[in-house]
Amino acid sequence: MVPFPHMNVRELVPGLSNDICECVKKAARFIENSQQIDGSWYGTWGICFTYGTFFAVKGLLAAGRTYENSYSIRKACDFLLLKQLNSGGWGESYLSCVRQVYVQGDCAHAVNTAWAMLALLYAGQIDRDPAPLHHAAKELINIQMQTGEFPQQGHVGNFNSSMYFNYPNYRNLFPIWALGEYHRRFFHRREVK
Predict the structure, then answer these.
(1) Which tens digit of pLDDT belongs to each residue from 19-32?
(2) Intra-chain end-to-end CA distance of the chain, in Å
(3) What is the spatial distance between Cα 160 and Cα 184, in angstroms, rounded to a whole number?
(4) pLDDT on residue 6
(5) What is the pTM for the complete model shown?
(6) Is there a contact between 120 and 178 (Cβ–Cβ < 8 Å)?
(7) DSSP for 53-87, written as a single string
(8) How far, in whole angstroms, is CA 48 from its chain's centroid?
(9) Any idea where the domains of the chain sit in the sequence?
(10) Which is it for the CA torsion 65, 67, 72, 76, positive or negative?
(11) Could you report the per-residue pLDDT of 103-124, keeping only the tens digit for each?
């Protein structure tokens, strides 16, 4: 593989950089305008408001928004923190998709917990108040099975708010991602202090 030196997009395709910037601005406004009153976003393909909020926060952060400069990200964090269970996890029912309002599930769900944790981590929660993230990490560790896998719990996928299913790898991928990101950010934070 031939390494390429860093190339400036403006040099490669004059005018394209401005078009990309304008597209990102419009996309961020679209995401902000799609936010629910409670601070969440309705998600499709995943269950439901936790999933949508995770990806909306990621999109806004990619567009240059931060917790400090974005009311939408602050509202999203407030929403997620409000839905955190006493156990430290999150658990949203598939009924959220049907009713189009957040419906609490019966217990913490590893994938919902991971989505919420990731959104909060990326939004800088660990620097404001890490306690909710410590509780969430502990809950994920408690959910994990002896084999290292996470159990298959309630549905995490949906199609058209009428068909519910599980993505086989979500039960492991998202919790491992969340714990890895938590570990990286928590220990980096400790090293900086």
Answers:
(1) 888 888 999 999 99
(2) 39
(3) 36
(4) 43
(5) 0.89
(6) no
(7) HHHHHHHHHHTT--TTT-HHHHHHHHHHHHH--TT
(8) 11
(9) 37-186
(10) positive
(11) 999 999 999 999 999 999 999 9
Beta-bridge partners for 165: 157
Residue 82 half-sphere exposure toward CB, CA atoms < 13 A: 12
Q: Reply yes or no on whether the pLDDT at 9 is more than 80.
A: no
Q: Which amino acid, residue 181? A: E
Which of these, 151, 153, 128, 138, lies nearest to 88 by C-alpha position? 138
| pLDDT for residue 193 | 63
pLDDT of residue 13: 60
Residue 2 exposed, middle or buried by CB count within 10 Å (0-12, 13-18, 19+)? exposed
CATH, range 37-186: 1.50.10.20
Least confident of 35-44, 51-60, 122-131, 158-167: 158-167
Spatial CA neighbour of 118 closest among 69, 163, 170: 170
Q: How many beta carbons lie within 10 A of that of residue 24, not counting itself?
A: 14
- Token pair of 72 as six digits: 């939408």
CB 154 within 8 A of CB 90: no
Give me 46's structure tokens: 């995943």
- Asked if 189 and 126 count as a contact pair (C-beta separation under 8 A), the reply is yes
3-state secondary structure of 165: strand
